[in-house]
Amino acid sequence: MFYRQSGVRHNSYSSDRDLFPIPADRYALWFFLALGIAAPWLIDGLYLNSYMLPWLLWTAAALGLNLLTGWAGQMHLGYAAVMAVGAYSTVHAVRFGIPWEFALLIGGLSSSVIGSLFAVAALRVKGLYLAITTLAMQFVMDWVLNHSPAISGGSHASLQSPTFALLGQDITSDAGLYYVALGWCVLVTIFLLNMRRTGLGRALVAVREKDFAAAILGVNSFYYKIIAFATSSFIAGVTGAILVATFYFLASPEQFSVNVSIQVLAMVIVGGLASIIGSYFGAALILLMPGIVNGLFAGFADMVGLQFGPETLAHIPNAAYGALIVIFLMVEPMGLGKIYGNIRDYLLVWPFDQMKK
Amino acid sequence: MKLTKILMQVAAVALAGTATVSSASAQDTIKFGMCYDLSKSYTFITPQITQGARDLADLVNMKGGIGGHPVEIIVQDHGNEPQRGIECYEKLKREGVFVFDTLSTPVSIAVLPRIMKDGNILLQSLVGRGDAVDGSVFTQVFPVGPTYWGQVVNDIEYIRLQNGGSLKGVKVAFFYVDYPFGQEPIEILKTLAEKEGFELGLFPFPLPGSDQGSAWTQIRRFNPDNIISWAFAGMHVVAAKEMKRNGIPISKYISVNWLNEKDIASIGAEAAIGLKRGTNVAGGQDVPIIAEIIAELYDKGKGNGDRAALNDVYYNTGVAMYSAAFEAARLAVEQGGFPVTAETMKAGLESMVDFDANGLMAPLTVTAEDHGGGGKTRIDMWDGKTWVGQTDWIGAYTDVVWEVVKESSSKFKLE
C-alpha cells in the first residue's frame, strides 16, 4: 500500500540494478534530502548547529566504520585515533598555508596511509585479537598526542583551526557550516550506497562471510581487507577534519579519545551492521539521546513536582539511556536499521498480509 | 485524557531542550550557567561545588540579591564530553546566560573559541589551560585562583622556607599522573631546580592511577626530602598505602589542591596526620561565610543537599569560586548598572581588589593583565580533624610563572 510495487518493471539490466526500485523509497529519500537542504530555514540555529551538524558528521564517521565492520567484517576499536590523524594533519596543513580543499585530501590520505600501515600489522590476526590490536592503535595515538607538543600544540593546549574556507570563500555562518556537514554526509552515503553493488562491495561481503571461502573463489582477502581499512580510514580522516573545522574549531586529544572510538562502534552496532539508514539512526541514538532523555526526565520531574538535585537529574537519564540501548538490541539484535526494515516489510504487503494466514 | 495531556507536555518539554535546574526563575535575574560534569570523570568534585554555589546563591538572594536583583544558577550536565559541553553552552547562551563555568578541562578548551568569538565570559577556576590567566590574550577567560604553575612554585617556596631559606642540596620528588594534568608543572619545576639548585626527580605513574608500585620504589631509592604530588581522588589513597609500604613518612607528601576529606577518610584520619596540601581556599567550617550558610540555610532545613557534604574542602572551594563571581557581578552593577552585560561583568571582574570573601580564600586582585587574581596559595596540614594553615598566603616566583604563561599564551592565536 505505502511501498507499492505495482508498475515496477525492469526492461534493462541497468534498471534492474536500480538502488531504489520502489518509487516510495525514492520519494522518501528526495523528501528527506529536501528537508535537509531546507533545514536552516526550518529550525533554530541551536538545533541546526548543536544537534543536526554533529549528527550528520558522526553519521558520516559511523558509515566509514560500518564499511569496515559491517561490510568487510573487521572489528576496529581505534577509529577515533584514525579520525585524529586526519584532523591534526588537515589543521597543520592549513596552518602551513595549504587551501582547505587540498588539506582535507591530505588529511584523508594520511589517515588512510597510517590506518592501512597499521592494518598490515593488525591483519595478521583475526576477530577478537584484531579488536585488541586496533585498541592498541588507539592508545598509541593517545600517547603520541599527549607527549608531542609539536603535533597537539602543547600539554593542556589545543590546536586552533583556521577559518574554514572552500573555493576561496570563508565559511562562518551557521547555515554554511551546516551545508558543509550535510554535503560530506550525503557524499559518503552515496558512495556507500553504490559500493554495495560494485565488485569491491561484493568482494568485501565475501571476505566477511568466510575469508578462506572467498580466497577459494579467487578473492584475495588480505588485499580487500587492506582496501577496506584504507577506504574507511580515508572517510574517518576527512570526517575528523570537517568535525574540527565546522564544529569544534580546535583539535584537542580528548575529542578523539578511546571512549569516542567506543561510541562510534556503538553507533554502528546499535544502528545495524552493514545498514546505511541504520548508521543514521545509530548516530542519532548514541549522540542525541542523552540530551533528549535528560530533557524528558527533567520536564517530567518538574511537572510531577519532584525536587531532584542536579546530580540525580544527571544520573537517572544515563541509566534510562543505557536501558534504551539494551531494549532496542533485545527487540532487534540486527539494530535500528533492521527495525526500520521490518516496518517497511510489513507495510510492503499491508493490508494483504492477512490473506496468507 | 489526563495521561495524554501529561504525555503531550512531556513531549513539549523534550522538544524545548535539555535539562536545567534553576534556583530562581524571575526575569530580572543575573544568570550564571554551570555546564558541569555531574556524571562522569569530575564527579569527585562537582556535587560539592554545585551545592556550595547554589547555597551561596540562596544566601545572596535571601539578603536581597545583587543590587536588588536575584542571582540565578543554572546547572546542566555535560558528562565531560566536548560535544555536549558545546551543546550546553549554545543552549544557555540563547537563554540569556553570558557567564559560563564548565569545571572541566576538555570542555573549557572546547568552548573557548565560541566564548572568545561571542564575547561571553568563561570562569574556569582550577581547570583549563593555565596560560589563560594572561588577560591580554584571553580577554574573555577568567581562571580566578591559582594555575598549576603558580601552585607548584608556591609549594617550592614553602619547602624553601622550611629549609631556612635555601634549597641547595634539597631533594624534591615530583610524583604525577602521566597525562597533561600531571605533566603541566614539569617545565617550571626544571627551571626552578636550575635557579634554586635543588635536586628534582620525576616519577610518573600511568592512568587510572591504581598502579603506582614502580614509581614509589624509585622514590624510595631517590630518598627525597619532600614529595610534590599531582594526583587526585583515589590516587592519593593508593599513594598513602605505597608510602607506608616503602617506609616514607606521609608528612613529606604535598598534594595538589585536589585532595579532600573523603580521600582523607579513605586513607584514615589518623594515618593522614601530617599530610599537606596546597590550596587557595581555607578548609573547615570556622570560616565566617560557611558558618553563615549553616546558620541561615542548613539550621533551617533549607540547604541544597546533604548537610554531611558540607564538611569538605571542595564545598568551600565552590563557595569561594562563586563568592568571587558574585562579587564581580556586584561591582558590575555598581559600575555599569542593571542589566549586567558581558562587558560590564568583565569590567567588574577586572576591578576586583584584595577580595578574600571574608577570610575564605587567598586575596584576589584581578586586573586586565592578570585574570588569575595573583594566584596565591598556601600549604595546609591535616591535623587529624581539620586543615591547619602552615603559612600565610604565598605568591612566589611570579616572574618565573609569567614567563611560562607568556611563552605559552603567545602561541595562541584566535583565527
Task: State mean pLDDT of chain B (0 to 100 scale).
Answer: 86
Fraction of residues in helix of chain A:
over 70%
Low-pLDDT stretches of chain B: 15-26
Distance between the termini of chain B: 55 Å
Described by the principal axes of the CA atoms, the overall outline of chain B is globular
Radius of gyration of chain B: 22 Å
The poorly predicted ranges of chain A are none
Most extensive interface: A-B, 46 and 55 residues
Mean pLDDT of chain A: 88
Helix content of chain B: 40-55%
CATH fold-level topology of the largest domain in chain B? Rossmann fold
Structural account:
The complex is a heterodimer of chains A (357) and B (415). By secondary structure, chain A is mainly alpha-helical. Chain A has one domain: ABC transporter involved in vitamin B12 uptake, BtuC (Orthogonal Bundle), CATH 1.10.3470. Chain A is 74% helix and 2% strand. Chain A is built from 15 helices and four strands. In chain A, the strands form two sheets. A two-stranded antiparallel ribbon of chain A has the order 1-4. In chain A, strand 2 (165-166) and strand 3 form a beta hairpin. In chain A, helix 4 (79-96) packs antiparallel against helix 5 (100-122) and helix 5 packs across helix 11. Chain A starts with 12 loop residues before the first helix and ends in an 8-residue tail after the last helix. The mean pLDDT of chain A is 88. Chain B has 415 residues and is α/β, with parallel strands linked by helices. Chain B folds into two domains: 12-146 and 285-375, Rossmann fold; 148-279 and 379-403, Response regulator (Rossmann fold), CATH 3.40.50.2300. Chain B contains 14 helices and 13 strands. Chain B has helices at 2-16, 46-62, 82-94, 105-118, 148-162, 180-183, 186-196, 213-222, 234-246, 261-267, 288-296, 313-336, 342-350, 398-409, and strands at residues 21-22, 30-36, 71-77, 99-101, 121-123, 141-142, 171-177, 199-205, 226-230, 253-255, 276-279, 378-382, 387-389. In chain B, the strands form two sheets. In chain B, strands 8-7-9-10-11-12-13 form a seven-stranded mixed beta sheet, sandwiched between helices. Chain B has a six-stranded mixed beta sheet with strand order 1-3-2-4-5-6, sandwiched between helices. In chain B, 57% of the residues are buried. The model of chain B is unreliable at 15-26 (pLDDT under 50). The chains are: A mainly alpha (357), B alpha/beta (415). Chains A and B meet through helix 3, helix 13 and helix 14 of A and helix 1, helix 2, helix 3, helix 4 and helix 6 of B.
